[in-house]
Amino acid sequence: MSSPVLQVRGLKVTFSTPLGPLVAVRGVDLDVSAGEMTAVVGESGSGKSVSFLAAMGLLPKTATVEGSVILDGHQLVGASPKLMRSVRGRLISMIFQDPLSALNPVHRIGAQITEMLRAHQTMGERAARTRAVELLEIVGIPQPGDRAMQYPHEFSGGMRQRVVIAMAIANSPKLLIADEPTTALDVTVQAQILEVIQKVQAQFGTAVVLITHDLGVVARVCERVNVMYAGRLVERSGIHEIFDAPTHPYTRGLLASLPQTGIERLVPIAGFPPNMLRPPSGCAFRTRCADAIAECEHGVPELHTVGAAQSACIRAAELMRPR
Amino acid sequence: MTQPDIKTPVGVPAGGGSLLSVRGLVKQFQTKAARGKGGRKRVVQAVSDVSFDVAPGETLGLVGESGSGKTTVGRCVLRLIEPTSGQVLFEGVDLAKLSFEELRVVRRRMQIVFQDPYASLDPKMTVGASIAEPLVVQGVGGDHKEKVVSLLELVGLSADHARRFPHEFSGGQRQRIGVARALALDPALIVLDEPVSALDVSIQAGVVNLFNDLQSRLGMSYVFIAHDLSVVRHTADRVAVMYLGKIMEIGDAETVYEHPTHPYTKALLSAVPLPNPRVERSRNRIMLEGDVPSPVNPPSGCRFRTRCWKATDLCAMQEPVLEVRAHGQLSACHHPEG
């Protein structure tokens, strides 16, 4: 296996709130290999977005980030603003659910991509403009030369997301973080954007972290899957293993709650996600878990190898055995 | 526009009378005039000549992408917005002809549940008061407290929740409160407008089960509006696929999902990601190009033709009408599949 492009160790993110400290990410270890498409799945409040906003240095001042995030040899936790500026956009880029939040409404699309190119590369204005049009073509925008002269409001939602992808890959970063990139889009447009992301990954060798709640999207495009619950990774596995033989009760619960052909009755997960101001002791999932035993209350379970996967359930091996 | 035929139910299984009949429904919205020189008012064709029926006790799924008009249809059915033309017959009564007072009586029998349970509950009212409000508004006598408790229990909550406020509940519980309120007047029809879209999947499953359980216990009909085709397949008896204000295909849900005849239905189904990596990576996907055109200026003829791989000159000239296909569903296409 090639050395990881991103290595996260013991990542912890604490927000200070009027109600006391809220630990949104409670110790995450995660590797992303060069060129691979990795999913980070979890429900609202699981800490999946916050983990990567922390890695990008994009959290507000109320957040304290601890642990280690190494990107291509650079330690990003506690890095100077200068280093972060040089890393963001050059080695690591991030796209979001709402592309408008990343686009300046009063500048032409072409100029915004040009600015991105010239921030990190020694490039003349004209060469950058030519490259910007090429990038728009790569992400599948028809008549890229004309479209480069237009403003964000003249683009549809799907086209805006393509523009943002063009900006994100302008400097051929090693890693692209895509945070729910298709959640706001219609399914037929979602299919197009997923194809663009796959194309970019193949063409530029960019590693992609896809943050999503949609297991169907994961099944379509990802190779590895990380499942988060209450600020921790509870399972890490290959794409086929996680759907065929999930090792954590939470992963099993997620899959059972999905409507699928031939399933008469859905099986929801009991209860609701924990209040992160006061998460349960021990395994945070135990309060909703049908398989919880007394030991689950004691000590936060660590990821350990179970078959081909890594699981943070102390009963994983036992529960996996055919009964 | 063709004169809607009132007598023939659309896509309803033979023998079943309709609870709800929608005939030739049209809804246009006027946009505000653009400021400056040459600013003109424009007309958005949100719903154009839509007809369907809902039988007692059945669920009709209404699916489509943004701009398809599915939500507008739902609102017109309840006359929350006034249709531009067409008829909405509920239990045989044309809602458009009713006075406000008469409409209020009919509305006891038809309710709606919205996507965002936060926005539809008054944050300053206790949950009990919110659930009892329809009873008060409609002047229903009797012990409201007792009724509220039974409604809470019906949706999987407990009696002591009545004294609490909406902010004390999770998203899934709030949606259950919205359902309890919709049930207060024993409706015959509930329009569910994206009722689980805002919920996490593990919570969504419980609310979907609740809808199914309530229907088998109480026998009401649902119009289930959703963009999530998997959820609709799980819930609906019949499904109508909408595109740019028109029904493209309508029929038995299993039939439409298994044997789609409209190219749009086929493309839409093939775009839905399924949580099965082997299926996902082996199936042929139809990639539609571009986005949904503007409903201000829809394409001539068939509205889907600008994105359709089968489109011919005929599609631009003549608008296809809904026709019966081999498996019994109706679709509006000059070049239907299979």
Protein architecture, described:
The complex is a heterodimer of chains A (323) and B (338). Chain A is of the alpha/beta class and 323 residues long. In chain A, 31% of the residues lie in helices and 24% in strands. Chain A has helices at residues 48-55, 81-87, 109-120, 125-138, 144-147, 157-168, 187-204, 215-221, 239-244, 249-256, 316-320; strands spanning 4-17, 20-33, 37-41, 63-71, 74-75, 92-95, 175-179, 207-212, 224-229, 232-238, 304-306, 309-311. In chain A, β1 (4-17) and β2 form a beta hairpin. With 338 residues, chain B is α/β, with parallel strands linked by helices. In chain B, 30% of the residues lie in helices and 20% in strands. Chain B has eleven helices and twelve strands. Chain B has an eight-stranded mixed sheet with strand order 6-7-8-3-9-10-12-11, sandwiched between helices. In chain B, strands 2-1-4-5 form a four-stranded antiparallel sheet. In chain B, a hairpin with a 5-residue loop joins β11 (323-324) and β12 (330-331). At the A-B interface, α6, α7, α8, α9 and α10 of A face α6, α7, α9 and α10 of B.
Topology:
The complex is a heterodimer of chains A (323) and B (338).
Chain A (H helix, E strand, L loop, with lengths): L3 E14 L2 E14 L3 E5 L6 H8 L7 E9 L2 E2 L5 H7 L4 E4 L13 H12 L4 H14 L5 H4 L9 H12 L6 E5 L7 H18 L2 E6 L2 H7 L2 E6 L2 E7 H6 L4 H8 L47 E3 L2 E3 L4 H5 L3
Parallel strand pairs in A: 3-8, 3-9, 6-7, 7-8
Antiparallel strand pairs in A: 1-2, 1-4, 4-5, 9-10, 10-12, 11-12
Chain B lengths: L19 E11 L12 E12 L4 E5 L6 H8 L7 E6 L2 E2 L5 H8 L2 E4 L13 H11 L6 H11 L16 H13 L5 E5 L7 H18 L2 E6 L2 H7 L2 E6 L2 E7 H6 L4 H9 L5 H6 L30 H5 L5 E2 L5 E2 L7
Parallel strand pairs in B: 3-8, 3-9, 6-7, 7-8
Antiparallel strand pairs in B: 1-2, 1-4, 4-5, 9-10, 10-12, 11-12
Helix pairs in contact in B: 3-4, 3-5, 4-5, 5-6
